[in-house]
Amino acid sequence: MFTFPLSAVRAVIARGEADAAANGGFRNPHYGLASGKDEKPGLWLVGDQGVYVLSNGKLPDGGKPMVCYADECNPGSNFDWWEYKRRYFGGDDGIEFLAAEKILALADDRPSATHLRIDLDENSIGISVLAR
After folding, report:
1. pLDDT per residue over 10-20, tens digit each?
2. pTM, full prediction
3. Where residue 27 sits, what CATH number does that domain have?
């Protein structure tokens, strides 16, 4: 399980949309292998040096996307981030696309929610919101 503050997730989505408007659309996470897929507002869930979500709007040359680390898997604040990542995300690096419309709909349906929760297993990704 990975949790992200909803306020930060909303900011990452908004930043991606602003970057897309300024720079010609959304980036494709499939390195050209699936052209036209996932080129819409959303987040990329990334596992490498920690687990985080980042904005997917196209960036200007040298631009950096906005990033939000999972509470449980932030190398800057959690000494055991590598073990947690390996256990719940896997030892390899990876990336998954999460549609902004689905995340925002979940959050809007539950105004008291404070965090996005993402659960991973070998075959699926579960997305929910919770109040802390």
Report:
1. 999 999 999 99
2. 0.90
3. 3.10.150
